[in-house]
Design a protein that fits this description.
heterotrimer, A mainly alpha (125), B mainly alpha (507), C mainly alpha (320), B: 507 residues, mainly alpha, two-stranded antiparallel sheet, 21 helices, 2 strands, C: 320 residues, 2 domains, 67% helix
Chain lengths: 125, 507, 320
């Protein structure tokens, strides 16, 4: 474990800690809304990590200005494009999970997934 | 460039286009469009397979004016073409077999939404089979997840919506891990195209630089895909999802959805990282342990079940354990056995679900175990089909399950340390499979006068016989499935040679 | 009984003895009964009822979470293992991150010839001044095609779950909260009247100039969607339905996605078969330039705007 390098890459370390927080929320929380918030934190941390890949210190965003075309003037454009795709996927999945939560709440009047499972097993449907 | 080489691209675009097309059509027309699209894509895949077998080597198709790695590309070999053809056949037969249930259980106004889901599921499977780019694979994995969730919850009772929620939570955990693994790999190699990543990884492996992040990335991708395809400890969503959804959804989910992720995992092992590097890492030992545990625990849970559809769903858990055990053996023969088991399981599991639905039709719609007594006499074709499926699962010679178990045993003998646990696990799980499948078959063929009727939920005179003319579509689907199973079991040599060729072209 | 022989003669034949032996009633050699004859299985009614009651009681006891000690211990162990798993996952990721190349440095594996060609030749080959837009809509257009379909299929699943189709049912009456709408709320309506037109114009500007500066279909579509939601909240469903109904949304998104698919299949087909594409690239910096990118931006913007509004309307009311 290279501690000096870890402090150098502190942005990526923060992204990993956020990923861990989001992942454990998605897995361990009982309330469905808190699980969805955990999912969003996890996805945002992944996009932060991915966006850091393209950063090069001292250069500008990849929009051609004044006809300057050399590689040394702009940051890497690929991770930005990948993050664009990822954000749309995250929005879609959040909308789907929220509508599932609304349906479950209307029927069982609880937001706790374990309680719903237990109730279904007792019903013996 | 021959025109046949355009067919994989045309099939992906056609299935992607038929999704929005079905949204503006009514239910009946959407159904006809769906059947037409699946048949056309099946025919096109057969043509591509004939072309690739004729030319003897795979080819690369650039999507756009720029060659890879600057643009996207897809790569077509004989294994990919065969899997596309096979998936189309299974999907077509499942959709035909489940038609009556679909019309009864889905609301009229939402029927065309179901066909949108099936079309987009087909497109994502084709894209996962053909793609040569890692990030495209991630986007289509997400389409696969969302459309599978739509297939589960179309029936809209409490059980299916809870099953869909559990499925989405587990699947999103897996997607997050997969995306993080892809990001790590991109940082280490700088490429997203699978062939380029392989060269860069080989250089990294030889110099020993960035060893820990490489192993972490491989572990994250494998665990992410294993969670999504319901490996043993992560299978909690499977029985509810397969057991309570509508019939064609259950057949398609059990045969096709998990197999798409397993195919992507095979691609990552062979084409992205290289199988010898994977073998040196400890990842496949973990997959092996979980696979063996799944084989045994899945069957144990199936024995306890009283509902026939949940029993078949638990048997799926065991079969996916087989496939991961085949990966865990670490040899090419093991992977060939796994791919053959993917094909055989897809054919058999759909057969079992459609046959189970025919049996419950003859028992006044109840799926409890005691109500199925003597159903083999009431619905003869479904009884025969269920017997064929059970014998194939147990591993009776002449059916496809026997060939896959034989291939697993041969692969196990080839690898040295893992031979003994594999053979013992195979033997135990065959016995456990026999316990619950043969028990059901015996119960199907027991005449009613030998059992207490008070345990049944319906009176004896409510049960009626079902003949083949009353259910034309389901009977056609069952006969085709039985013939497919016999064909796989009796003439498996050409198929094994095709898989060997395809895997050689893969790397 | 036989039709041709009498009863006693039939009992002496071999076939009757064989049948007796098969049924197990009489062994022809030992002249004894081999096994009991099969009779119908009868069980006492009270025994059966007791068995089902006991099963019900057992189920109640097992799932009674407050008093079932084993289940509580199992849940506690499950939580401890899950926490250990998550903490070890984070530690492993931190160890991996500490060995990655430095953030912000120039010599990294990521800055290779792929990025070089995008930056240097991006403007000439795609005609887009914004290199990222040129990359996602021209070089790697297949990914964006898949991603628009992710948005589309998520809308379909939300429609399956939350759309209410029977106009006279109780669910529809409950979800229809038009009585709660702010009727003629002065502040909201005045501000909306001032703000909504600039929002729409800004959204259209962002979509159209996606290839000239920061922006593009996704961001512009989100801005237009937000404008539509503000308009709906200020003026109510009655006024919005005059120009945006479900039929319009379906046809609009079908046309946009079909247009995208057709345009891109032309591009892929000509590219793979090495045919020259006839779409002109125009001069960089003008609005009508960069080939197909402008059309694709408009299609994507339309889909995203409609999707944002649909999510809001379906979540709130179950329909349009």
């Amino acid at each position: 474990m290279n501690l000096a390098n870890l402090l150098n890459n502190y942005e990526e370390a923060v992204a990993m800690i956020l990923f861990g927080i989001g992942f454990s929320n998605l897995l361990l929380q009982k309330n469905l809304i808190k699980k969805i918030i955990g999912l969003n934190i996890m996805d945002t941390a992944t996009y932060l990590f991915l966006a850091l890949k393209g950063y090069i210190a001292g250069r500008k965003a990849p929009i051609v200005v004044d006809g300057v075309r050399s590689v040394e003037a702009y940051i890497n454009p690929i991770p930005s494009g990948l993050v664009l795709t990822g954000i749309v996927v995250s929005v879609s999945v959040t909308a789907l999970m929220l509508s599932l939560t609304i349906r479950l709440y209307r029927r069982y009047h609880t937001l706790d997934l374990d309680e719903i499972t237990t109730r279904l097993k007792k019903e013996g449907l | 460039m021959d025109f046949v080489q355009n067919f994989p691209f045309i099939s992906i675009i056609l299935s992607l286009f038929s999704g929005p097309l079905s949204s503006v059509l009514s239910g009946k027309k959407a159904k006809m469009v769906n059947v037409a699209v699946i048949s056309i894509i099946g025919v096109m895949s057969a043509a591509v397979l004939a072309y690739v077998l004729g030319s003897g080597q795979e080819y690369v198709y650039t999507m756009g004016h720029f060659p890879a790695p600057w643009g996207n590309e897809i790569r077509v070999g004989c294994l990919e073409a065969f899997m596309a053809l096979f998936f189309c056949v299974i999907m077509l037969l499942s959709m035909i077999g489940g038609q009556k249930e679909r019309e009864a259980e889905i609301e009229k106004t939402k029927q065309n939404l179901y066909y949108i889901m099936v079309n987009l599921l087909l497109s994502s499977l084709l894209a996962l089979i053909y793609t040569n780019d890692l990030f495209t694979a991630y986007v289509f994995v997400e389409i696969n997840t969302i459309s599978a969730c739509g297939l589960i919850m179309i029936k809209q009772n409490g059980r299916t919506i809870e099953a869909a929620t559990r499925y989405m939570i587990m699947s999103l955990l897996g997607s997050g891990l997969l995306l993080l693994g892809i990001c790590f790999l991109y940082d280490l190699t700088g490429h997203l195209l699978m062939s380029n990543i392989q060269e860069a990884v080989r250089v990294l492996h030889d110099t020993g630089a960035y060893h820990i992040p490489l192993m972490v990335s491989l572990g994250l991708m494998s665990v992410g895909l294993a969670i999504k395809s319901a490996l043993y400890p992560f299978h909690a969503w499977l029985p509810d999802a397969y057991g309570y959804s509508t019939l064609s959804s259950a057949a398609i989910l059990s045969s096709l959805v998990s197999k798409g992720y397993i195919f992507l995992l095979i691609k990552i092992f062979f084409r992205v990282i290289g199988f010898d590097i994977v073998r040196d890492s400890k990842v496949i030992n973990v997959l092996f342990v979980f696979g063996v545990a799944g084989m045994i625990m899945g069957s144990v849970s199936a024995i306890k079940e009283n509902n026939i559809r949940r029993m078949i769903a638990y048997s799926s858990v065991a079969q996916i354990g087989y496939i991961y055990m085949g990966f865990g053996l670490g040899t090419t023969a093991g992977v060939i056995a796994s791919i053959y088991h993917v094909i055989s399981h897809a054919a058999t599991k759909s057969l079992l679900f459609v046959a189970a639905s025919g049996i419950t039709d003859a028992s006044a719609g109840s799926t409890g175990f005691f109500d199925l007594t003597g159903a083999g006499y009431r619905n003869k074709l479904a009884g025969v089909a269920f017997t064929v499926g059970s014998l194939s699962m147990v591993g009776f010679p002449m059916f496809s399950g026997f060939i896959s178990k034989l291939l697993f045993a041969q692969a196990a003998v080839g690898s040295t340390h893992k031979m003994l646990p594999t053979l013992i696990a195979l033997a135990i799980s065959t016995v456990l499979n026999a316990v619950y499948f043969i028990k059901t078959v015996i119960r199907l063929y027991t005449p009613l006068k030998y059992v207490p009727t008070e345990n049944m939920t319906h009176k004896t005179d409510e049960l009626f016989t079902v003949t083949m003319e009353q259910q034309p579509f389901k009977s056609v689907a069952l006969i085709c499935f039985i013939l497919l199973n016999l064909a796989l079991g009796l003439s498996s040599e050409p198929l094994i040679r095709l898989i060997q060729n395809g895997l050689g072209m893969f790397a | 009984m036989s039709k041709k022989l009498s009863e006693e003669q039939y009992r002496k034949t071999r076939s009757f003895q064989l049948k007796q032996w098969l049924d197990g009633t009489k062994d022809p050699f030992l002249d004894t009964v081999e096994m009991k004859p099969q009779e119908e299985f009868r069980e006492d009614r009270t025994v059966i009822r007791e068995r089902s009651e006991e099963k019900k009681r057992l189920l109640e006891k097992v799932y009674d979470l407050e008093h079932n000690a084993e289940m509580r211990i199992f849940q506690r162990i499950y939580r401890i293992f899950s926490v250990i798993f998550c903490v070890s996952l984070v530690l492993m990721l931190l160890i991996a991150v500490s060995n990655l190349p430095t953030v912000g440095a120039f010599e990294r594996p990521v800055n290779n010839e792929v990025a070089k060609r995008y930056i240097e030749d991006g403007l000439d080959e795609t005609g887009a001044v914004n290199i990222v837009t040129g990359m996602i809509l021209d070089y790697r257009a297949f990914d964006t095609l898949g991603e628009s379909h992710v948005l589309f299929i998520a809308t379909c699943t939300v429609l399956i779950l939350l759309r209410i189709d029977k106009k006279n049912s109780k669910d529809y009456m409950e979800a229809n909260d038009r009585t709660h709408e702010p009727k003629n709320d002065i502040i909201l309506q005045t501000v909306a009247r001032i703000l909504v037109p600039p929002i729409f114009i800004f959204g259209i500007y962002v979509i159209l100039c996606g290839h000239l500066g920061p922006g593009g279909g996704f961001s512009g579509g989100a801005v237009i969607g937000a404008g539509l939601i503000l308009y709906l909240n200020a003026f109510g469903f009655a006024k919005t339905e005059r120009f945006f109904t479900e039929k319009i949304y379906k046809r609009m998104s079908f046309c946009a996605l079909a247009c995208y698919a057709l345009a891109k299949s032309y591009s892929f087909y000509t590219g793979a078969n090495h045919i020259e594409s006839i779409i002109p690239l125009g001069t960089p910096g003008a609005i009508l330039s960069s080939g197909l990118i402008l059309i694709l931006n408009i299609c994507v913007g339309v889909v995203v705007a409609g999707t944002m509004y649909t999510f809001y309307a379906i979540f709130r009311k179950g329909g349009y």
